[in-house]
Amino acid sequence: MYVSNSFTTESRCPFCDLPPRKPATGWLRELIDAYAHCADRKDAKGRMALFTQDTRFLVYMDAIAAEPTQELLGRAALAPAFDNLNAYKAITHFNGRSTVSLDGDRAGGETYCPAHHISFGTDAERTIVIASIRCLDQFVRQGGDWFLGERPTACRLDRDPSLRTLSPWEADVS
Fold it and tell me: Which of 3, 8, 42, 131 has the fewest CB atoms within 10 Å, counting from its CB?
């Protein structure tokens, strides 16, 4: 997947025939959403294309640790880590609160994203892993397009060994 910051003729202003000015924060939100879109579809190459060639991707499996659990340098180094999502039958990322601060061709941002990972197996074997994710992104504009330059990602995982749906009278709603 490629997120372009360019305009099409269909997006021109009907009154003055000029392309509308979309704020950079809108492009950055689209970039964040494109990452989740590619992750949900297990599109490792699409996710990799959203990063600069010299990117730095950090994973903190302990959200309060000083040192990352994993550090990947360069776009090519992302492939094995991104292919790990193939271990799940279904994945859904829900991008939530997101803030961005611009500084010319650079920007910083923070995004919160709960992600659900459902494993393969029979109904009795399947599990769900819910990841509470917080990304502290550094964005870079290159050639007119925005990319992820650095993505420190803090995770907290909650594992539910059962996806069995409870009937309304079985569920404890108190």
Answer: 8
Binned at pLDDT 50, 70 and 90, residue 65 comes out as confident
Query: Which one, of 63, 62, 1, lies nearest residue 32 by Cα?
Result: 1
Compute the distance between CA of residue 145 and CA of residue 127 in angstroms, rounded to an integer.
39
Measured between alpha carbons, how far is 32 from 111 in angstroms, rounded to an integer?
A: 8
Other beta carbons within 10 angstroms of residue 44's beta carbon come to 19
Residue type, 60: Y
Residue 11, φ and ψ in degrees, nearest 5 = -95, 10
Q: Is the pTM of this model over 0.85?
A: no
Outline where DSSP puts E strands in 47-144: 51-60, 70-73, 88-93, 98-103, 106-119, 128-142
Q: What pLDDT shows up at residue 167?
A: 44
